[in-house]
Design a protein that fits this description.
115 residues; mainly alpha; 0% strand; rod-shaped
Length: 115
C-alpha cells in the first residue's frame, strides 16, 4: 500500500505545531505543571495565614506581660536576631500551634518596627 505524498508533510506539521504550542503555552501562555501549581497554592496559603495573624502578633507585643523586656531586646538586637526573639516570646506562635511560624515572626518584626 502506498501512502499519499501529503501525509509526510502533514505529519511533520502536526508534530511541529504541537511542539510549538507546548513551548509557547508553558513559557508565555501561563500554563503550569501540577507541582508548580501546588507550590503556588501552598505559598499563597502561608501568605494568607501570615497576613491574618500579624495583627495578633503586634497586639501581643503591646499586651504581653513581658512586652517591655522583649521590645527592649528587639531594639538592642541585630536584624538577624529579631526573628528569634519574637519566636521565643511566643508572639509568632499561632493559636493552637505548638511551634512558632517563621514567616509570621518576620512579618511581625516588620510591623513592630514600623510602629
Amino acid at each position: 500500500m502506498k501512502t499519499p505524498e501529503w501525509v509526510t508533510p502533514a505529519g511533520y506539521g502536526a508534530v511541529g505545531g504541537a511542539l510549538a504550542l507546548a513551548i509557547i503555552g508553558f513559557t508565555a501562555g501561563g500554563w503550569r505543571t501540577d507541582g508548580t501549581a501546588r507550590e503556588m497554592a501552598e505559598n499563597a496559603s502561608v501568605d494568607a495565614v501570615v497576613a491574618a495573624m500579624t495583627p495578633y502578633c503586634v497586639a501581643q507585643s503591646k499586651t504581653a506581660p513581658n512586652s517591655a523586656q522583649v521590645l527592649a531586646a528587639l531594639k538592642a538586637a541585630s536584624s538577624y536576631d529579631r526573628r528569634e526573639i519574637i519566636e521565643k516570646a511566643g508572639w509568632a506562635t499561632p493559636l493552637g500551634a505548638s511551634s512558632p511560624n517563621r514567616e509570621l515572626a518576620i512579618s511581625c518584626n516588620s510591623a513592630i518596627a514600623a510602629n
